[in-house]
Design goal:
276 residues; alpha+beta; eight-stranded mixed beta sheet; globular; disordered N terminus; metal-binding; Inositol_monophosphatase_CS
């Protein structure tokens, strides 16, 4: 199966000037390193300063979230004037939905894990155009890794190139971030297919595991663009397949998405749809 863009996207990826790609990768990598240092120094250090709840007592926001997003916005405004930013903590800049490019940032994806000191949270930054992610960078502080990708340039983990290997999902791991309604049925189907499901609380890292070859697939619903944009760039550039909840190829789906290595997508999609 070959991934093609969703019908609402251009028929072919938009050409991105090489200098812009290089600069975006450099700046995003620098910001990811900054974030990794801050997260590493502060994760799980007792009660987090400024920690409050948003929608519910498990929906955390901390001073680290706010500080990292402010820092990201300041640097991007200086380096890429006129390119709007969309962020989890401070919303969307004017014209972000219609601008040729937009930056999308999640300063701490997996904040509940960060607060608890559980080593599974990430900083995510992506440059997005009308086709989908152009550049994606994920900082994985607990593993001291920076993952970076750009359209047509592949993926690197701390500078080392990585690609996915086609395989069956049998015997593999699937990273899931699912609603309570979808999780039990999908988990039963995967178990019957002799695959293991892991739910660890970071959409960015769930997708990243597919790009790195650690997982055969990731299945998600209920996410926002900032949760997945950076990691979706990694997955696409590593050779993984990305579809929406209906199985339609889409480089940056909304609502639900399945990311899988070649050879696993059809079976994982079957599990996804079996108990809808």
């Amino acid at each position: 199966m070959t991934v093609q863009p969703h019908p609402s996207a251009p028929s072919t990826p938009l050409t991105v000037e090489a200098g812009l790609l290089s600069k975006a990768l450099e700046v995003a990598g620098r910001l990811a390193n900054d974030a990794a240092e801050v997260i590493t120094a502060t994760a799980g250090r007792g009660q987090q300063p400024g920690a409050t709840h948003k929608a519910n007592p498990f929906d955390w926001v901390t001073d680290t979230d706010r500080t990292l997003e402010r820092h990201t916005r300041r640097v991007l405004a200086s380096e890429f004037p006129g390119v709007p930013v969309v962020g989890e903590e401070f919303g969307s800049d004017v014209d972000a939905a219609t601008a040729p490019y937009r930056w999308v940032v999640d300063p701490v994806d997996g904040t509940a894990n960060y607060v608890a000191g559980f080593p599974w949270c990430a900083y995510s930054l992506a440059l997005v155009d009308a086709y989908g992610p152009v550049v994606g960078v994920i900082a994985d502080p607990s593993r001291a890794q920076i993952y970076a990708a750009a359209r047509g340039r592949g993926v690197r983990a701390n500078g080392v190139a990585v690609t996915v290997t086609p395989r069956s999902p049998t015997g593999g791991l699937i990273c899931a971030e699912l609603s309570l309604e979808r999780a039990p049925g999908f988990t039963r189907q995967a178990a019957a297919g002799h695959a293991g499901v892991r739910v660890l609380g970071s959409s960015a890292l769930a997708i990243t595991q597919v790009a790195l070859g650690h997982a055969v697939a990731a299945v998600l619903d209920g996410y926002r663009e900032w949760d997945v944009a950076g990691a979706a760039c990694l997955a696409a550039e590593a050779g993984a397949l990305i579809v929406d909840g209906e199985g339609r190829p889409n480089p940056l789906p909304t609502g639900a998405m399945v990311v899988a290595v070649p050879g696993s997508l059809d079976e994982v999609l079957g599990w996804w749809h079996a108990e809808r």
